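Pasting two entries for a bug report.
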Amino acid sequence: MRGTLAKSLAARQAARAVLAACLIGLSLSILEVAWATWRERGKAAELSSQMLDLLEGGAATAAWNVDEGLAEQIGLSALSIGAIDGLEILLTPEQPLWQRFRHKGAEQDGINPMGRLVFDDLRVSDRLLYRPQADGHSRPPIGVLRIHFDMSRLSADYIAFVTSTLLSGLLRNLLLGLALTLVFHRFLTRPLLALEQHIAALDSGGRGYKRLPLPPGHEQDELGRLTQRINETLERLDNSQDQLRQLATRDPLTGLPNRALLQERLDHALSRARRGAGGIAVLFLDLDRFKTINDSLGHEAGDKLLRAAAQRLSHMLRGSDTVGRLGGDEFLVIVEEVREPKEAIQVADRILMAIAKPLEIDSEQLQISASIGIGIWPGDGEDAACLLRSADIAMYAAKAAGGAGWRMFSAEMSEKAINRLQTEARLRAAELREEFVLFYQPKVSPHDLSLLGAEALLRWRTERGFISPAEFIPVAEETGLIIPIGEWVLREACRQASQWRQRHGDLNMAVNVSPRQLADSGFADKVRTALALSGLPPALLTLEITETAAMNQASGDFVTLHRLREIGVGIAMDDFGTGYSSLSYLRRIPLTELKIDRTLMATVPGDAAIAATILELGLRLGLEIVAEGVETEEQRAWLSAMNCQTLQGFLVSPPVPASTFEPRFLADRVKAVG
């Protein structure tokens, strides 16, 4: 009951009305008391002046003549006045002519504290006495007339007035607040309560909401307009009820069942299957390279592609099957009454063939494909969650195999997925445990194998040994952990290069940069910070990027790459010749170095056409050429004859720790002067 009362609008209105009335009344009462205080103090001061004027002449005569009898006569006459509590006629401060007090000691301090605060400075009044002469006062004074006034009565009257004023004001304020509360309740709260009851009586299900009646007397005011707006809202609710039901179960873009409806239908299919209606196959489908198409042609084209894919899926399935969109470019197909796994495979093949047909989107001819993961009930999952998870894992296996195909779920896939999650968890703690270490591979001249630089390569050292970069780098890329890990690699490589420079002279250090790092708008500032902390000159740092990372910068006109070049660091395109980049971009990208991929060097010198073409292209563009994966003396001799500037590979050394690299490759190096 107390909680309901606290939430009541009427109760809150009453409290606010009373509070407002009390505050206003209190303010008025304080002003009234202040005015009364000023008035009473004025009266007391005027009384003091009148008494001094009345007694001044006689007191001056008594003081001039040192007439104690006259002084006593004047004093007794003065003490007969009720407002005077004492009188002194002083010749000097130490020599009184006559003095007497009606009250003494504590009796004189019996004034109320408030009265003392207001009137205490008026209790004693002095006036200098001068020799009585016809022509006025003479100097110097001959004494002092001091009157002590009794303020207790005045103080009591003042306190009584203040008390009555405040109490009457409080009572007046309470009555005013009560009146305001009744007015609010009559003209606002009661109509709102009636409106609330009408709204509560509305049926929340189905269409045909009853309209609310206008409160009598409120047709044109705010309450009437509020009722009209509620009725308009009810009208819109009636009109949109079917649309809401549609949105609750259908994907608004494709019109296919959404995740909620798919879950409901899968649960229903499982119930039927458990009653002997046959097996169930769940096909988890993801469009390949949809993000690339979406980014290249725009979101509108991507939406058209999704609608076209949804239409093709709907047309090639049986009426008993269900196809829906989970979100993004992911679709789910539920196939019922599956007797053998090959039936699910046949459905997957039909889907792949339908999806693979060319599409024309905004005058662009598109060829798309899909990756499909297949989960079969009951072998791949007893319930809906397990079955969906199995199909999802199988889909990722299909995508990892290159896409445009299907994969059946297997226990090995689940084990790989678990291992990937474990790798991610351990990867998050690796930096804190200081498990990362850098290895360095020398970069040398093909002519005389003299040391030119080094490439820093990340290694993950655990208690069970080193984990292959091919195993953890993709996980770090996908989860975004590559960004903090890459920053650590950059700082550590710069620190090591600066340390070697102090001991052995200039040495160029190459560091690999991931696409995620390059997409960071603040990456150039992080490079600048790493150089500043280590003291390494920018010219001695080269950042190696892949063709894919470079092409992702094309839409932004390679702004980040240009910022890096402005710092002074070199930029190398790693694995050149294996990607899909256009040669026209080579002039726009601020490269300083091209690296021939090891797969192209594997056929040298027998089949050296591609490697020779890259060498000639780089030399014509004024770029330094680095050949990777050099393992034989024949390859080195060919590179030397082709005027390649730099090579690296197992012919010279595999990547080694810093403790091995320094004595093996830097010990005999003469430090550059200056």
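Entry 2 (this is the one that rendered wrong in the viewer):
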Amino acid sequence: MRASSVPQPEPAQENAPRRRTVLAGAAAVTAAAALPLAAPAVAAARPRKSQPHRWRTAAIGGTGFVTGILFHPAVRGLAYARTDIGGAYRWDDGRARWTALTDHLGWDDWNLLGVEAMAVDPAHPDRLYLALGTYAQSWAGPGAVLRSEDRGASWVRTDLTVRLGANEDGRGAGERLLVDPRDSETLWLGTRHDGLLRSTDRGATWAADTSFPAAASASGQGVTLLVAAGRTVYAGWGDGGTALYRTAAAGGWEPVPGQPPAGAASSKVPIRAAYDAGTRALYVSYANGPGPNNQTDGSVHRLDTVTGTWMDVTPVAPAAADAFGYGGVAVDATRPGTVVVSTNNRWGPVDTLFRSTDGGASWTSLKDSAVLDASETPYLKWGGETPKFGWWIQAVAVDPFDSAHLVYGTGATIFGTRDLVHWAPEIRGLEESAVRQLIAPPSGARLLSGLGDIGVMYHDSLTASPSLGMASNPVFGTATGLALAALEPSYVVRTGWPSGSGAAGAYSHDGGASWQPFASQPAIAGSAPGPVAVSADGATLLWSFVHWDGTKYAAHRSADGGATWAEISTFPKGGAPVADPLDPARFYVYDTDTGTVFVSADKGVTFTRGASGLPSGDVQFRIAAAPGRSGDLWLSAKDNGLLRSTDGGLTFTAVAGCQASHALGFGRAAAGTKRRGRSPYPAVFQTGRVSATHDGVAVLRSDDAGGTWVRINDDSHQWGWTGEVITGDPRIHGRVYLGTNGRGIQYADPE
């Protein structure tokens, strides 16, 4: 049952003279210069530190790379999925949906939202292991292993001293984590740059296996796969030389005899492997790169583990005119000799699954007879096209209890079939969007979102994938800007990386339901699309340009809806423009290089300096304008705290008690906060740190213009890094929409 939030009084200074300080640097943000505190405690109830909320995930349908799918061999309907940046999931067969298992990972553990590998114990169905670590670079923290005795409902964590790379090349390769088939206490973990690790206490502690013969290096792929074949463990190696090792009868490891010779596979990486217990055959897929990109050659080989005989069973040999690699491999546990493999990076004829029922002697392409139904996730039509069978297919699995239930992951979803002909997404509950922009309009769509890779969405519902699919005319890849005219909210503009047509900007007169490309665009737009702003009346557009490598270019202005553009010489290059919500002539931009706010009072024609000496050096410092108020600006300055201006950016003062602010937005004001004839101040939402509510970064709401804050998430709902975007709902007080970097759009209402 939903309950109204207890309103807090507005700060007493809202109608009193305010002391203002032009900041000369971070040191000038002191308590004396800060906004005064709220009304005396005798006039209000003691503020709460937290308020329970019901958190849910807005439905889109995947949108990210599913890098692994693993059925439990002994429990019907139990399966797990891993993603490159969005955590791990468990399949709920009764509800036909996925349950997220790693949302408890918080801000400081953002690097652990990428799942490098997962493992189950065939002898202990409730045990689950995850190897976490998104990047193996020096700037990322070490990885960790999570182990669970209740299928991921709760976890025990062991921090590693090595780094893993769940969002690096090779992330779609085999599982690098394995329970030893001879001993449930022993686990193996293959790393990118630190060789093979071994645990003898079920993942509680780890040490290097010095008997593993391949030499670790600071670059390359290292161990690409671990798989059990009977009581033998096989390990793939991706750094050249011997490609496949196995545990030896006398202990330690040895190269697998007779493996594909130098001429056939020395330049290829073993990608995945699967063992057919019925025929005692091990199938291994190869490609000339780890993938998912840049593979142009590959093969599939079968090893008879009894005789040691190898056979090339490649379904179709790649060629210059049809270049691709091989990726996923899965066997049918109930039908010996039945195996499925996937092509990968096959952009011509599009990737497919090949299926064999005779051990690879002959193959059938399942794509050729496939009937795809993407109606549940219309964005897969990619702007009206016929849905593709898939791309980036490196995760393939056959249900061990149902031979006709076959699933595979792509760069955007999981497709499944129950009859090998009809395919549809099996993706409910799994959301992996990296969210860049959010707008909750006052009418029309419930939400507009700008996403990495998938462009812009018009959310007519939060519980079903947007019925219009991804915004088209034109189709974008990653959205870089999304803005609404505050006084004409049916007018919306968007910018992003172009796809196909080359158009990088578009406008809508119906609140984002349909779009038209700008009639023209600056020459730099196609290679460096950046953020966009639209004046309150919709008459003026400002477009900033930033290349993905960080190079900044001059911003441009249009006063005719994008028909013509003119460079703005006084606009700081690369800045994110913000429109005043009431005054169509006013724009603001924060120059993060110098810590200076620039202000325009002539519809963006020229900009002049406002406040200076503000925090600088981080491109993620950003300004937000309070709705319904002119010149009321808030600056999220990350670990420099939260600052506010009520004079249009000429001066800023620190918001007392806020130690960090990473993203900020506004929603409907709380009932009962209107005082002395003034309209109530909108609810303020942020991801930040306020020691009065919580020691770490949290999702927070203030109903009194930053005088007091309440934490609205909890330790089970954290989602790693949440510093990009947050907004409230202008129609429902207390509702918040939060963008994550890999767990889609989270939204909540007070309980």
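Dev reply: Rendering is fixed now. As a check, the viewer should reflect this: The radius of gyration is 27 Å.
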